TrEMBL record:
Keywords: Flavoprotein, Oxidoreductase. Residues 4-272 form the FAD/NAD(P)-binding domain. This is NAD(P)/FAD-dependent oxidoreductase. PANTHER family: THIOREDOXIN REDUCTASE 1-RELATED-RELATED. Homodimer. It holds the Pfam family Pyr_redox_2. The keyword Transcription does not apply.
Length: 300
């Protein structure tokens, strides 16, 4: 059977795309490997009508919504490879080798985080250490917070985080990524600035208690934010030849169309930053409209 669209990724972007395409009477299959980047998060915030929902609950609600549309199928398997055929259609192969042919593709697999190699960090990530102040700042407001980031974005992150707490420590983990003027400005606001490397994060049960530096010094912190490097969750976009922007995101137009004919993208892999559930869902809706319009024009 020739599908109208294969959607790769079952987060808010992919689910939103499936919903819009289902309501457009398109035959689509969504593939989800259930390895969402936000699985470690206890609550998701900033999504209208669903503030505080767990990531798994949000996905379950969205999947129930899709059950109303018989032309939408969801498969809990990963797509390992996609190849474009001479007739312009696509063959998508699962990790088990099963093939699915589709006229269009939506890439919505999101990103993977590469966290700093700091002992104790992973044990606290998603519990008292987070990636986004807009997502988790309210819950840790007015606490003694830390910002851990080893690139020049640390200054912007510190400024942003100061909206939620004035008791702030900035740690560059050995990287010289603040100018003297920036460091002085942060200190003038009453913030602590630490350039030395971090040897570990101490706490219990995911609740951070302190940051320990290589020189043996230690500062008490109860929560904070950590920067990470991001990469595409799958290599499919690059293998298809999709153009990427300076941040590594898939370049798309106003309807989610990539530089490769027939390939659309939505969610974090098309935006990179800011990473927000509601932005991802909106991107999925947009890409679905783009796919439906492309199919309509071809068939009209």
């Amino acid at each position: 059977m020739m599908l109208d669209c294969v959607i790769i990724g079952g987060g808010p972007a992919g689910l939103s795309a499936a919903l819009v395409l289902g309501r457009s009477r398109r035959h689509v299959t969504l593939f989800d490997n259930n390895q969402a980047r936000n699985k470690v998060t206890h609550e998701s915030h900033g999504f209208l009508t669903r503030d505080g929902v767990t990531p798994s609950e949000l996905r379950a609600i969205a999947r129930r919504d899709l059950e109303k549309y018989p032309s939408v199928q969801v498969k809990d398997v990963a797509i390992a490879q996609v190849s474009k055929q001479l007739d312009g259609t696509f063959l998508a192969f699962t990790e088990q080798g099963e093939a699915f042919r589709a006229r269009k593709i939506i890439l919505a697999a999101g990103l993977k985080e590469l966290l700093p190699d700091i002992p104790g960090l992973r044990e606290h990530y998603g519990k008292s250490l987070f990636s986004c102040p807009y997502c988790d700042g309210w819950e840790i407001r007015d606490q003694p917070l830390v910002v851990i980031l080893d690139d020049p974005h640390v200054y912007h992150m510190a400024m942003t985080t100061s909206n939620w707490s004035k008791n702030l420590a900035i740690c560059t983990n050995g990287a010289n990524v603040l100018t003297p003027e920036q460091a002085d400005k942060l200190r003038s606001k009453g913030f602590q600035v630490f350039f030395q490397r971090i040897s570990g994060i101490r706490g219990q049960g995911g609740q951070m208690r302190s940051i320990v530096f290589e020189d043996g010094s230690e500062i008490a912190r109860s929560a904070g934010f950590v920067g990470s490097k991001l990469k595409h969750a799958t290599p499919i976009a690059e293998s298809l030849g999709c153009g990427l922007n300076e941040k590594g995101g898939i370049i798309v137009d106003d309807l989610g169309k990539s530089s490769v004919e027939g390939v659309f993208a939505a969610g974090d892999n098309a935006v990179i930053m800011p990473s927000q559930l509601i932005i991802a869902a909106a991107g999925g809706s947009r890409a679905a409209m783009g796919v439906n319009m492309a199919l309509t024009l071809e068939d009209f």
